[in-house]
Amino acid sequence: MTTESNSDRTDLVARLRAAGYKITPPRLAVLEVVRQKGEHLNPNEVLEQAKAIHPALGRATVYRTLELLTQLGIVRPIYVGESGPTYIRADGNHHHLVCARCGHVVDFDRCVADEMTEELAARFGFTITSHLLEFYGVCPDCQTRPWREEVSDGTDPGAHPQA
Ligand SMILES: [Zn+2]
Ligand SMILES: [Zn+2]
Ligand SMILES: [Zn+2]
Known about the structure:
Blueprint (H helix, E strand, L loop, with lengths): L5 H13 L6 H13 L5 H9 L7 H13 L3 E4 L7 E4 L4 E6 L5 E3 L5 H12 L7 E6 L2 H5 L19
Parallel strand pairs: 3-5
Antiparallel strand pairs: 1-2, 3-4
Helix pairs in contact: 2-3, 2-4, 3-4
């Protein structure tokens, strides 16, 4: 797994300061949770865990802080399925297998995009700092379940001929 250091934390705090934000205890608690626990926490999970650090923390503050950290490029929201976003750290590379049916997400480490990074940087003149790579498909569980097509609201069922 990733190794975290205090210099990493200092760096994140410095980025908040540089952007003109005060380092308040609630913000620090959210930052700590995102930094340490890292991957795919939804706002409720961030709230629960950050409360262990700062018990008076409220839901609205968590949402605002996650928005702020997103704007600053410290975290990145991931939208999969119908549930709200989960947050991952924006630095470093991230790789997903996403089940299109149930929204299950598998993280994996090894990938071939590193080779592409130099090529893309040269071709488009980008300085590339990280990548997010996602593959979509159907997870093993869903493959064994019969697939039920959801009929979206507002459509007239009579318009579809029955097979
Ligand atoms: Zn699935
Ligand atoms: Zn992930
Ligand atoms: Zn990669």
